[in-house]
Amino acid sequence: MFKGVFIDDKEEEKKYAELLTNNSSGQLNIEFRLPEHEVTELAGHLIDQHYDFAAIDFRLDEVPIKDAEGGGQKNKYRASALAQQIRDRAIDQPNCDLPLILLSQEDYIKRIFHADLTAEDLFDLVISKEELVSPQPLALAASRIASMATAYKTIHASYTKNNNNPVAPNIHLELDSHEAEMVLNHQAIRAIAKIQYPHQIVAKVMALLIRRPGILLSDEHLLARLGVSPDSPNIPQLKAKLFDFKLGYSGLLCEGWPRWWWHRLDAWSKETLGASLGSLAGSERVAKLSNALQIELKPAISKWSKSSDEYFWVACSSCDHPTELKHSVLGYDANYQPFLEPSRICWYCIQTGAYESRDLVIDDSDESLAEKIRNGKIQPQTQMPS
Prior knowledge:
By secondary structure, this protein is α/β, with parallel strands linked by helices. The chain has 3 domains: about 1-160, Response regulator (Rossmann fold, 3-Layer(aba) Sandwich), CATH 3.40.50.2300; about 165-210, no CATH class; about 215-375, no CATH class. About 40% of the residues lie in helices and about 10% in strands. The protein contains 15 helices and 11 strands. A 5-stranded parallel β-sheet has the order 2-1-3-4-5. A two-stranded antiparallel ribbon has the order 6-7. The chain starts with a strand and ends in a 12-residue tail after the last helix.
């Protein structure tokens, strides 16, 4: 069990600490505390208590907390100031570094927090209080907090074993040296070995392996590569079988973010299905997959062409549905790496405007194509212009 703390200036908000604790399957024990100290003093207290993680509300200054003599307000700071104090102390004491979770109102997160790029870099995970309204999102949030705590403990253990000299974590775990050399030998990933602090290591693993498809695939991108519909029967059985074939990732953060090794899936499909996935239409992939694994699966259907005979490849960044490259546009990516799959937005989400609510931006190279979809010059029965 991981011991954590939730800090908020409103006493009634302690319900979120209780909700996460009660929906964590025994993984979390979260205390609640008010920001009753000056920011430097509170940061020191959190480190001295050896918490496994700290969740912090963005606005810690809305309800004034006076000192014992009734003097000035002690909580004249926000979450970013407290987080900066904790990260600064980790520079001298890497073993005291801990996961920081922003747990706040969605309006604050979108309107203020995301506008502050410096503040964004201080937190490992951002959770909206509005999400925590039912058991499923509560369990997911609790799982991801526990996964972060596990990752930090793994990195801390490497310090202990190496006389407190910072080392890169074993992010590939089950890969042997030959496989790791083949898959992870990219400059950006090799640079992780030179990072000295746990929160920076975790941030890089999130950015280069977890958050975006490429070396690893999310469940949504796995289904897209296989051409399987998200509402197909037997998806849990499919994933269990693929995990038995050792296609699943079991490195840092795997508990909260299930992922799949793309290179292993690619090799397995060629051997098992007798063809590369990209050479088969979705309906063909699913037919071969169902036969090979002896489970019933439903092929994906293109939201644009309404056909299963499309060459699905990625999950749309807007709707997460399997989509084909020819019926999607490129999303703008400020953090491009050659081994990451470019963001793609399906034509259907361009037509409906659904992508805008996800704060996605179309790459300039595809903006003219997207405009033709928006204004109706390209319809579902229309072929993509050459």
